[in-house]
């Protein structure tokens, strides 16, 4: 129906209602209609004119009545009340009398018929139009403001795929009440029960203020059901208007494993980053690229992206140039191999960086077991080269990214990273540059993370492969790890090994189960297959060895380990002679030295 056709239809309908109302009221009071024909005529004409006039004033003919609510009802009340008042004034002027009983009855019938004619559209939409769509029965977790908004929008949008059936809320004062006609049936612990009783196929978590621990608790209850679980967008996205409350998103593993963000010491970070030249090695990698993103918000003078892979460096270069297009930050790229010592020295001499973040490394445990010489080249020699270039060119702060696998290492990768830490601590002792290392565990979404592998296996229909049912790992998000790395650099005095608080370790098999559930699949359909531990792997990782433990936090989520003994001469010997050792001998030499089981270089050749 066109706009004009709709208006004329409403005017005709209202005219019939107004005329009928006043004559019906008169008939109730005076069935014989004696001596009142003039009075009825004047009143009906006056009321009809006033009704249409006030209807245009309050825009009754422009409202979408299928979405009518209290606001529309108030407008109807005003239109009818003002019309009756004006009619009473006209009766007093023309006939010197006001027929109060007739007008009172007219007001009531008028309000009933006009309101009813409008709200019947809303009833029709809610009752019939929604039922004509195959909607998914939905349980809303949270009967607060957000949950109510979700329910209202789903009820008003007859094209929505979801139909709200019930609320779940732990607030006992809300339980057994109805909100928008939807019952609050119980608390979080009863999710499984009501999902079965109410035949629920979808669950929406509508509590944007949830912290990670609370979300994890709710999701565990939702995971007991066969319903698909979603959640409303992040609170900051709702407040900024980026998305609406009914743009649901799937729960991500990052939501369950990440922790609450901490406030950074902006002043201390700005002091050593703002208007400074910052160089990042491995700038195209997961951690390196995120460090670049985080650093760009502190207005450095220049960010130098140094890496070996041209495609990844190009990608982060384009992203940063777009991000920094309204700033004076220079984005410079350098394709370089960490084993090319002369190139690194030239780069340092040319740009004179104030801060270096060394994120470049080989990190894949099984691959480094098969190619230990490459781990030595990149993780040990590469670290020594970039550290030496930094020392010679007067870098203020050098921050190396390490790993929890460097603690009591059982792998080549972990061993080479532990020896790289020793190199960094040694350079701190012989240099004015502050050399520090930052140690943390697995990051969600990194290239070497197990999560992308699990997702691919799930997409192919399974099974998901887990090495051991008891294997546990620490996890944190890439942005959180990068922020804490930057913060640790601001805290550096020199020689420290900073350790990031990784929270509680997570069983890999539980992670696999969550990913299967989050993908909307059934655990029995996908399945989990145990493949056995790979070379170099441990059941659990540590962040500090017994000699390094220093439990006091120097900053929220940042610890500092005590310096242990350094074996620089032995490391130098490995650097000079690793090419002459076969892989098994080299592997054993690295493990022994990293675990401080040998202290004399002559023993290395006899391994």
TrEMBL record:
Signal peptide: none
Domain Polysaccharide biosynthesis protein CapD-like: 278-560
Transmembrane segments: 7-29, 41-61, 73-94, 100-121
Keywords: Membrane, Transmembrane, Transmembrane helix
UniProt-listed InterPro entries: NAD(P)-bd_dom_sf, Polysac_CapD-like, Polysaccharide_Synthase-Rel, SAM-dependent_MTases_sf
Domain of life (superkingdom): Bacteria
Coiled coil: none
Keyword Transmembrane helix: yes
UniProt family annotation: Belongs to the polysaccharide synthase family.
Name of the protein this chain belongs to: Polysaccharide biosynthesis protein
Organism of origin: Metabacillus endolithicus
